[in-house]
Amino acid sequence: MPIIKITCFEPSFTMISSKRMTASNNLSVKVRSPLKADTVKITRLRSGLFAPVLGPLLQSRWIIVLLAAVISALVALTAMGITAWQCPVRSTLGVDCPGCGLTRAMVLLIQGNWQAAFDLHAFAPIFLGIGIILAVGSVLPARLQQMAAYQIANFERRTGIVALLGFSFMLYWFLRIFNLI
User: What pTM did the predictor assign?
Assistant: First the structure.
C-alpha cells in the first residue's frame, strides 16, 4: 500500500497530522497527539512577529506600481527642492516622527553623499533598497514577480526581519528624540 505522508503545521492548527492513501483510494487520517500548549503559544507569537510584509505586497502588481510611483515621486520632488508635504507629527506635536529626514537622506544616498545621508537618517539605505525592490518588482514578468514575492515572504518569515527592523526603527526614533545619537 503506497503511503503519502503529509505533515503540515499552521499557527491556527494545534495538531500535526499524517495522511495515508490506501489501495482503494480511500483516504484515512491518522492523527498524532496534540502539541503542548506552550509550543502553540510560542508559535502563534512567532508567526505574528515574523509575519511577512514586503512579500505579500509584491504579489499584486497594482500595489507595487502605486508604491513605486509614490516613492519615486517623493524622492524626485525632494531632489528638486520641493516639499511634498509637511510632517503631521512634527507640525502638530513639535517632535520628529520616526521617518523625519528619510526622504532627504534617500536623495543624498542617490547623489552619492553617503555620510550626510547616514547623519540625517540611518535607515535610508534600507528604505531605498525597499524602493528599488518595488520598482524592479513592478516591471518583472508575472511568473518572476510571484517567485520573488514568495522568496521574500519566506525570508521575512524565517528571519523575523520585519519585527527586528520595526523594533530597531522605533529604538532609533527614541534615541533621536532624546538626542542620544
Answer: 0.69
